[in-house]
Amino acid sequence: MNPSRKPLVAANWKMHKTPGDTVSFMDSIQKETGPCEDREVVIAPPFTALAAAKQVLKQRGYKISAQNCHWEEKGAFTGEIAPVMLRDIGCEYVLVGHSERRHIFGETDEMIRKKAASVFKAGMVPIVCVGEVLDEREAGKTFDVVGAQVSEALNGLSATQAEKIVIAYEPVWAIGTGRTATPQQAQEVHAFIRERIGAIYDKEVANRVRILYGGSVKPDNVDALMSEPDIDGTLVGGASLEVSSFKRLIQFLK
Questions:
Q1: Catalytic-residue membership of 170
Q2: Are the beta carbons of 130 and 193 closer than 8 angstroms?
Q3: Is 98 one of the annotated active-site residues of the chain?
């Protein structure tokens, strides 16, 4: 963690929690943690619970994210949702290119690039997920795969946009499996991502970008992960669904 970049702890609830569950969780977690001055907490509930989450948002440092969007502003796209709709409901972030979107729903790097650009156009910030599968890591292709994903996501973005983007490195082999990249493995890829951003823009831009780690983040490994210099936060799945475990993740290194 670099003190010049405000840490970001993001909760991806995936297909969990009704609006009622969301209100209960949001009330509890905000009471438990109080305002977050030196770190940012981003909650990504399902689409149906976004409005409920926004209505009970009280503490400083808490923000709302959607889990996905389409890249068009409107049109005949049954079942999709436009970035402007998410902004109107109070979202400040949108997850883009989560591994489940890539691997279950077939999203390509090009689709993810268009989504990231449309999120910026609508006045929000994309959290772009990148990462390799186990076969790619074992074949020594991690940097090739992640580098290509990062480069495509940044393609066409101005330096001003690029320094605001959030990149989440999620080794796909560590998501929901209980396996976690070691802090050293995660740091190695985070440093590579920052170098890649610096090569596309410059070091100043790269040093402003927040890079999160996602992949079986838990209360017992968060401190070690957050102690690495290029890990600026976490993108959390299962451990964000319970108030007690998520509170511990928010309060890392305290």
A1: yes
A2: yes
A3: yes
